[in-house]
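User: Is it possible to get a 3D structure for a protein together with its bound compound? The compound here is N~2~-(3-carboxypropanoyl)-L-arginine. I've pasted both below.
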Amino acid sequence: MTQPAYEVNFDGLIGPTHNYAGLAHGNVASQKHQSTTSHPKQAALQGLAKMKLLADLGIKQAVLPPQERPNTAFLRNAGFEGSDADILQAARRDAPHLLAAACSASCMWAANAATVSPSADSRDGRVHFTPANLVSHLHRSLEPAVTTATLKAIFHNPDVFTVHAPLPACPQLGDEGAANHTRLCPTHAQPGVQLFVYGKTADPTAPAPEKYPARHTREASQAVARLHRLDPSRTVFAQQNPAAIDAGVFHNDVIAVGNENVLLYHREAFVDTPAVIRRLKEVYTQACGDELACIEVTPDQIPLADAVKTYLFNSQLVTLPDGHMALICPAECGDHPAAKRTLDAIIEADNPITSVQYVDVRQSMQNGGGPACLRLRVVLTQDQIDQTRQSVFLTDALYDQLTAWVNRHYRDHLAPSDLADPKLLDESRAAMAELASIL
Ligand code: SUG
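Assistant: Yes, that's possible. Here is the predicted structure of the complex:
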């Protein structure tokens, strides 16, 4: 008999250098907040409160630690020499963009950490992880090495888990992880259908955005599907609508979200959305013997620009222990009449989604990261959970410990000029050393 399986949300714990450097071209919020003052303590507490809410709703919740920043090893690789204080000062003077990349807390957006396939979908019965290479942006390309090590430490048993190496770091294999990947299935335990969404292909005649870059390639998605030993009759590849990318949809999770047998998406999400949905429904029915519930939101309900502004689709769609589904939405949606109306209509209509919870993750939102960006979904059976490092699962005690840790170590605010402060590096290192003993 199939063992029950659970979706575990691994959230990135927001690091002490959370700041607004405007590093993400094509990410409207990041660009809008460039050079403004951030609030790292508030950011981390907002992230923890979201994790606690999910845990209190009865959903399994775990934590991914932040990476050490400022990344002095990166600055040394870029030729800066001397003491840590020397290299921070020299980088600030000679290469402020490298300093900003070295200080980014961007690993908080765990949806970009990796693509994950559960054992039920894989030919070899293992859970597969491919850390994303994140080559599209310098600050994000600094994450994969440590992400790989972290995943190997958490999912340490190679008989149960395969943590692959990231794909070769080149634009042709640009991979942004689970933000462009959705698994649809009757229940988490049963084999499903995996939808891979890419922004561009190696084919120069394919439609491409004009204003902003497409980050993720079809070739990367295909490589991940092969590595994860997925059944080709249960995988679907679809291209993002270039006009959506140009409106600020830099990842598919900004415009669509799925969970079990439900896909919620904007009509302008894909190239030829009706054809993508037809194909997905067909494949799903064939593979899962059931019907996929597709909930389409039209531009009349909410235009692309407002979908990007509110991050309505960057909600977490979760199955509650009673079997109903809930949307965990950014608070911004509650304040926006069209977004609120759209959400009210979704919960009133005949579909499995019956409730909406609004969460305040504004500090992350101002860098273009909503509730769904902050989490990596990992579907695990109880046996697999038992094989996972236990200290990362969020309990009330761990929540209290992490909250106290944030309050002890994080600054209230961080201005761009603070990034080269050697005291910030010392504070971050002290925080990371203590966190290592907690997790
Ligand atoms: O890659 N922002 C991130 C946000 C990632 C959101 N993730 C998902 N959609 N899953 C990015 O654009 C901004 C950093 C700065 O500007 O300082 C940034 O990297």
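Residues 5-69+104-438 form a domain with the L-arginine/glycine Amidinotransferase; Chain A fold (CATH 3.75.10.20). Residues 20-24, 27, 30, 104, 106, 109, 111-112, 140, 179, 250-251, 253-254, 367-369, 373 surround N~2~-(3-carboxypropanoyl)-L-arginine (CB under 6 Å).
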